[in-house]
Amino acid sequence: MLHQQIDWELAEREAWALRRQKGIPNNRRLFVLACMDERLPVEDALGIRVGDAHVFRNAGGLVTDDAIRSAMLTTQFFGTKEIIVVNHTECGMMTATGDYLTNLLREKGIDPDAVQVDPALPELKLPPGTFPKWIRTFTDVDEICLRQVELLRSSPLIPADVEIHGYVWEVESMRLRRPGVRLAEKVNTAKAMGARG
Ligand SMILES: [Zn+2]
């Protein structure tokens, strides 16, 4: 009967709209932390679709306080069981140091030590001189990826049974890889191929 199909679709739509109220987790029970870079197509990279995951993106794909806040909410209260971090090659966060960027802001007339980092929470203050660290630039994408997994793992706000993994998106090949595993280096030299003699 047609009405059964229509009723089923209406019930599905209601469940979709009321997911949080009904305590329904996202499809994959997944939280993704990724860089905001436009060359990183998070959904395509992970093979996920609308409804599959909570996705948090910031400059670098780094474990900042707001990333922790979002990860805490989704793992503690919304049924999420897995976290995937995606950093990427040629990230803008590797192009300058925090000190350099802080000085550029000073040249623009901004005093980094005087600004509120969260205008809605003025109590949250950076100790003087920590602004360059707060920007969170880095020099090695493989290291930083492993580090983000460690930082999440060590947070008491994330349940211990949540699986946490990190991957590097190569903008040059538009592929994911595990941090520290560069396939190109394994195929481009005879030594890497295990040639003897
Ligand atoms: Zn980036």
Q: Termini separation (Å)?
A: 74 Å
CATH 4th-level superfamily of the largest domain: Carbonic anhydrase
CATH topology of the largest domain: Beta-carbonic Anhydrase, Chain A
The gyration radius over C-alpha positions equals 21 Å
Note the run of SSEs as H and E. Answer: HHEHEHEHHHEEH
Bound small molecules, which ones?
A: zinc ion
| Biggest β-sheet strands, sense, barrel | 5 strands, mixed
Could you write a compact summary of the structure shown?
This protein has eight helices and five strands; from the N terminus they run ααβαβαβαααββα. By secondary structure, it is α/β, with parallel strands linked by helices. A five-stranded mixed beta sheet has the order 2-1-3-4-5.
How is the topology of this model organized?
Elements: H1 2-17, H2 19-22, E1 30-35, H3 42-46, E2 53-58, H4 65-77, E3 82-88, H5 98-107, H6 131-135, H7 141-153, E4 163-170, E5 175-177, H8 183-187
The structure holds zinc ion.
Zinc ion (ZN) is lined by residues 35, 37, 60, 88, 91-93.
Could you characterize what this model shows?
This protein has 197 residues and is of the alpha/beta class. It has two domains: 26-94 and 140-197, 3-Layer(aba) Sandwich (Beta-carbonic Anhydrase, Chain A); 97-136, no CATH class. It is built from eight helices and five strands. The protein has a five-stranded mixed β-sheet. The relative contact order is 0.15. The structure holds zinc ion. Zinc ion is lined by residues 35, 37, 60, 88, 91-93. The site of zinc ion has 7 residues, from loops.
